[in-house]
Amino acid sequence: xxxxxxxxxxxxxxxxxxxxxxxxxxxxxxxxxxxxxxxxxxxxxxxxxxxxxxxxxxxxxxxxxxxxxxxxxxxxxxxxxxxxxxxxxxxxxxxxxxxxxxxxxxxxxxxxxxxxxxxxxxxxxxxxxxxxxxxxxxxxxxxxxxxxxxxxxxxxxxxxxxxxxxxxxxxxxxxxxxxxxxxxxxxxxxxxxxxxxxxxxxxxxxxxxxxxxxxxxxxxxx
Length: 222
Description:
The chain is of the alpha+beta class. The chain is built from four helices and twelve strands, in the order αββββββαββαββββα.
């Protein structure tokens, strides 16, 4: 009799717990990559002509509590390197967030140095470095505003003091994530040399801009 009661209790617990576990698993949204041929989890970087993200949330964005939403991607060869784009809650529509183009150059995501995501980031650059493949990791996070403060600083470009409002946020919550792998084409020595020379020119131009802004020079491109 005791065994029958115990079996019934275990069945009841499983019946109650499993639906909640399934719900928790489905509560995370997905980010998928797509090129000119459609969605996928793996691509041949040499064949990619256009690239973007499709964000599939577990529920409508309006049903989340947030003040700011941000999309971030980073490459496996440098996880600290991030391209980001964010929207205040009143700026977001379902169309804005559901599809985020990366290539061509009118990308919505740019890194901290103002550089948009480019095909070269998954093809020429990793090829020149000898990588066989690159994984792009994407995530969507939402933040709640916790306060704001005023900050006055000297703007060297405009040669005057400017006062800015700095928003303060909570630690944020991830509501979607995804990744895709890109096979990298092999590059000849001549191709590597051309890339290196081109990068040297870009670095020189970037450091000229940084010098005007009063920032120290970089030793390599970000």
